[in-house]
Amino acid sequence: MADATQANPGGAHTVPARSFPIRLLLFGSVIVVAVAFGFLAHTVNEARILVQSYGYYTMALTFAWAVVAWVRVAPGWLRSWPRFSKSEICTTLGAVVGLTLIAVLTVPYTYKVLYDEFVLQSTAWCLHELREVGATVLGYKIEGVFSTMQTYLDKRPFFFTFIVSLVHDLTGYRESNAFALNTVLMPVALGLIYLLARRFAEHRAALGALVSFGAYSLLAQNATGAGMEMLNIVMLLLVMHLAIWFLREPDEPRLGALVLGAVLLAQARYESSLYVLPVALVILEGWRRSGKLILPAAAVLAPALLIPYALHNTYLSGTPLLWELREGEASRFSFVFFASNLVHAFRYFFSFSGSVPNSWWLGVAGLPAAAFALAASLKGLPRWKSASAEMITLVLFGGAIAANLGLLLFYYWGELDDPIVSRLSLPFTALLALCLAWIVGRFPLRWQKMVASIVMVGALFSYVSTGLMANASHWELNIQARRIAWELDQVQAMEQRAPGERLIITNKSALIWLTHHISSIQIVRARVRGEQIRYHMGQHTFREILVMQSFQPLGEEGGFQMDPSDRLPDSFVLEPVKERRFGTRLTRISRLVRVDERKIESPETEGEETEGKETEGAEVEDSA
Questions:
Q1: From CA 429, how far away is CA 402, in angstroms rounded?
Q2: Is 583 left (phi over 0), alpha (psi -120 to 50) or beta?
């Protein structure tokens, strides 16, 4: 802010007169308006409509602005890197490429978290086709073009799906685009963590952080899946880089790049909004170091850019159905979950069985390193004003990452050794890898080479002994994913032999079929739509209607019995087509022959008859 000089009446001396802090006043006004508009001014339904209708455009504006800001500071950021020798560059690139290849070659490209990733795929398709934030509920091909009939706003943040939709825009819609994006993000994440560690440690120590994080089966699982974890970890590491870059020499372009990165990070995952706090503290420290307020347009308008997040949160908080609580539970967070979740966290970090996608090395070596780093940080707290930009960033973001994991321990579904929950530990394990690099850097120079080698050997031994086993076993253990993949393969093979529109009546989510542009409804809906289905059969809307059902073993007497939730009314006459066993259960694909009009109105349903023993006419496969 410019200073003006005013003379006193006597002319003896002058006093500086500061210009009015118009940007600070504007910033405060934007905060008030954003909070009121996002959290207070709208009902749950109004918030839903606003996010669905305008969420794409606000995200597109934020992302485009962020890219411009990052490109603007990129040359200076690149020049700030340490000088790398050819040997260091070759070694680092070799580690990044090698670890990425191991992930690609040892983990199948499949859905790891079934419902979540189906919803993300569907949302990305809607963003691509309709520019609407929503997942498809109903969709049919009309004159050869798949059209969405109904969508709903999901609880998941949509920054990842927005990026996937951009890939669709460039290459055309492909289910594989989400998987390809995550694979590309793995070497990016490894490069960012190396460069971050290299800010406060030498080459070998930083390489130890890279290998410790890269030789981690959970990272490989997410790099070959369709979830949003890889983008979240990349954005977190990028924002940490931008925070260091800003603290080194605070100015408006650097702050703008940092703030816009933080806005996108906050919308990468639900809990990533926690990282707004360390970014705010970094900004305050930057102001202190520069001796002035720095408020570029991006910082002033940042609260407004977060309005879609606030509206989405309003919708989620007012829609308990989306919380997916277990029966008898009324709250997502409670102290009663802490003790049990802590035990599960211990089992996750110190599991040597190869049955969970972990790295026991990060538990054995990383957790003590984090504890030592915490003790050193507390000891150096009185001297925080003279601390380096790297240390301030690591402490502030490390605290937020630890708080993120701590919050998970109070969550009703916070068992880290659950494969669905363990993915939430990625930011914390990245922090552990960085702490290992920091510890190595504290050793005398003559010992650092040896200690760094121990860190890398320990990480690789953990990966070889249990990590690769977890990579290989995850697909075998994920029976539901194997069932869905088999059903998709069978239907696609039918499509190749006899092209035509098909309707799938499924006992699972219809989303996976809809993302393949195949019409589908769930069995629970088909039960009450018998007349409509019979009409479409008469009109030959579909070449055939296929029904997916599951059967459970009867016990010692042998045979199988259909799951009660998979039963259709007596009016539905089915013809078995193909069956396959997955573990102890049987999955059957049947063809709907007809819907008996005389029985449609009957209130009685088939609840007593054992249908699982009828396998005539079906091709039977076995998958133990």
A1: 10
A2: left
Compute how many other C-beta atoms are within 10 angstroms of the C-beta atom of residue 370: 23
Tokens of 163: 């990026």
The alpha carbon of 553 is separated from its chain's Cα centroid by a whole number of angstroms, namely 36
pLDDT in the model for residue 241: 96
Structure tokens at 423: 């993915």
First CA to last CA distance, the chain:
72
CA atoms within 13 A on the CB side of 52: 17
pLDDT confidence tier of residue 6, bands split at 50, 70 and 90? very low
In three-state secondary structure terms, 215 is: coil
Enclosing H/E stretch for 280: helix 276-290
Contact between 519 and 532 under an 8 Å Cβ cutoff? The reply is: no
d(CA 429, CA 212): 9
The H or E element that residue 243 is part of is helix 229-248
DSSP assignment of 163-180: HHHHHHHHH---THHHHH
Average pLDDT, the chain: 87
Whether the Cβ atoms of residue 220 and residue 102 lie closer than 8 Å to each other? yes
Of 495, 492, 496, 473, which is closest to residue 484 (Cα–Cα)?
492
CA angle, 215 then 219 then 224, to 5°: 120
How would residue 1 be classed by pLDDT, with cut points 50, 70 and 90?
very low
Tokens 């994913």 -> residue: 481
Cα(566)–Cα(550) distance, integer angstroms: 7
Q: How many CA atoms lie within 13 A of 141 on its CB side?
A: 18
Of 229, 208, 206, nearest to 218 by C-alpha is 229
Per-residue pLDDT tens digits for 193-234: 999 999 999 999 999 999 999 999 999 999 999 999 999 999
Mean pLDDT of 71-96: 93
Q: Please give the structure tokens belonging to residue 20.
A: 């009015």
Element containing residue 396 per DSSP (H, E)? helix 389-408
Range in 40-44, 95-99, 361-365, 614-618 with the lowest mean pLDDT: 614-618
pLDDT of residue 236: 97
What pLDDT sits at residue 330? 63
Cβ–Cβ under 8 Å, residues 404 and 274 = yes
Check: CB of residue 587 under 8 Å from CB of residue 536: no
Q: Is 508 helix (H, G, I), strand (E, B) or coil?
A: coil
pLDDT, position 122: 92
Give the residue from 264, 56, 271 showing the smallest Cα distance to 153: 56
The most distant pair of C-alpha atoms in the chain lies apart, rounded to whole Å, by: 110
How far is residue 393's CA from residue 389's CA, in Å, rounded to a whole number? Answer: 6
Q: Tokens standing for 17?
A: 């007169």
pLDDT above 70: residue 17 = no
